Structure formats: structure tokens, C-alpha cells
């Protein structure tokens, strides 16, 4: 039975095994999805793990999305532009890297009917932020602010994506609320919200002028950031929508078949409720 998995640290919270295994079972496909926690992946780790254990492919999650992009044999055009991957397919012994987080964020935006956004803000400057920037580029967003605690990382992204023709500017994360005037869409790509005690990066008062809010983090009742956004009147989309959007595309890459996103979301939300009790 071909194996598919997810690598990262931590991965115990991941809903991907439940989602994909349920979908494999539902469609009668002979695959099995496992979670593998690695301290730090290396070329040798990946090749021995995947080529010699019958892996068809795997997902990559925090904090290895950028590192993994440097380890695979080939990158899709979007993954190359993003400089980060979250999906790998093993083809004839080679590791092919893709970034389906881009599809996930577009899917989340479509779920709340995002339309005609001129100005957006991305919170964070890691691998998922790179996917968010390309998603916003696909959505023809005119101007983007990247807010990050380490300003130099955001500045590097602004330069890099500026070369693609995007109007991108970096700001310190602690100043994000002061730059929300005129911002229509906010995308949180940080891990803030994974822990129940995490405080939201923005409050309802600062979000009142924002129309749309997407958080890549998920929790049963929504993250604190999404609750603040809802209170402010934003249309909000949680990390489950992002998860499903990227999972659908990854599933297609591994199997050549299109899964049912509604079924996958039902499994994801049921599993999320059970693990957070």
C-alpha cells in the first residue's frame, strides 16, 4: 500500500491524516496517510524516508516549508516563485515540490466571496506568507503590506515579490493596527492562535474598516482573531477552509483524482471537535 504523509514539528495537531485517510477509504483508493515529526529534515532523511519506504508523496508543514523547497529535485513554477512548498510528489524516484497553500488561500477567499480587493495585509513572513502573497497576486490585489515581528524578514519578502511586479511594503507587526486604514483584506499566516491562550494580533476596534479576514490557523470555535473580526463585522474564513483548499489540490497531485471538498471539510471539523475536547 503506497504511503503518503506529513512532515513537520509539531504534527500531532494535524487534521490531514484524518481527512485524507477518510477520503481514500470513501473513494476506495489504496493509500495510507501518516504523520512524521522530524527535528530537522535533510536530503538524506527525505530520500531514505520516501524512496525506500514506498511513499507516493507527502505534505510539509511548519517550520520546514522553505527548507524543503531547497531539498527537492524539481519545483513547480508557483512553488519556485513562492520559495516554499507544502506538497511533494515522488515521480520516478525524484521529489517534485508544489505549493498548494496558494490554492488553499484562494479557496478560503472564494468561500467568503472576496471581490475587488485593492489593498491587503499579510501577517507573518514565513512559508505560508509566501503562498498568501502569490494568492493575492492571483486575485489582482493592488497593494500589500507584510507585517512581521522580525522586520528584516518582511523586508526581504517585499524586495523579492516586488521583482514580480507586486506593490509590497514591509512594516513591524506591532504597528499593524496603525496601518489598517484602507485595508480591505487581512490574511494571518502566523501560528498565533494555535494555542488556546494566544491573544489576537488585532482587535475588533482596529478591524472595523476591514471587509475580509482569513486566518490559516484553526480551532473549533474559531481563533481569537476571527472572533475579533466577526465582532467588527468582517466576513471571516477560518483555517479549515485553507486546509481543505490545499488538501484537495494535494490529493489530486498524488492520486490523479478529484476528492469531495464538502466531505473532507465535514471530516476535518468533526476531528477538530474531538481533539480539542
Give the topology:
Blueprint: E1 3-8, H1 16-27, E2 32-37, H2 43-51, E3 55-60, H3 65-69, E4 74-75, H4 77-82, E5 87-91, E6 94-98, H5 101-111, E7 119-123, H6 127-138, E8 143-148, H7 151-162, E9 167-172, E10 185-188, E11 212-215, H8 224-232, E12 235-237, H9 239-255, H10 261-275
Parallel strand pairs: 1-2, 1-3, 4-6, 7-8, 7-10, 8-9, 10-11, 11-12
Antiparallel strand pairs: 3-5, 5-6
List descriptors:
277 residues; alpha/beta; Rossmann fold; 10 helices; 12 strands; globular
Describe the structure.
Helix 1 packs across helix 10, helix 5 crosses helix 6 and helix 9 packs across helix 10. Strand 7, helix 6 and strand 8 form a beta-alpha-beta unit. The longest helix has 17 residues. Helix content is 39%, strand content 21%. A six-stranded mixed β-sheet has the order 2-1-3-5-6-4, sandwiched between helices. A six-stranded parallel β-sheet has the order 9-8-7-10-11-12, with helices on both faces. It contains ten helices and twelve strands. The two termini are 33 Å apart. The chain is of the alpha/beta class. It folds into two domains: 132 residues, Rossmann fold (3-Layer(aba) Sandwich); 136 residues, NAD(P)-binding Rossmann-like Domain (Rossmann fold), CATH 3.40.50.720.
Short description:
With 277 residues, the chain is of the alpha/beta class.
Number of helices: 10
Strand content: 15-25%
Per CATH, the superfamily of the largest domain is: NAD(P)-binding Rossmann-like Domain
Instruction: Determine the fraction of residues in helical runs and give it as a percent range.
Output: 25-40%
CATH class of the largest domain: Alpha Beta
Walk across the major sheet and give the strand order. Answer: 2-1-3-5-6-4
Using the alpha-carbon principal axes, give the shape: globular
CATH topology of the largest domain: Rossmann fold
- Rg, rounded, reads 18 Å
Number of domains: 2
- How do the helices and strands follow one another from N- to C-terminus? EHEHEHEHEEHEHEHEEEHEHH
Mind telling me which CATH architecture of the largest domain this is?
A: 3-Layer(aba) Sandwich
Low-pLDDT runs: none
Biggest sheet statistics: 6 strands, mixed
What gap, in angstroms, lies between the N and C termini?
33 Å
Please provide the count of β strands. 12
Rounded mean pLDDT is: 91
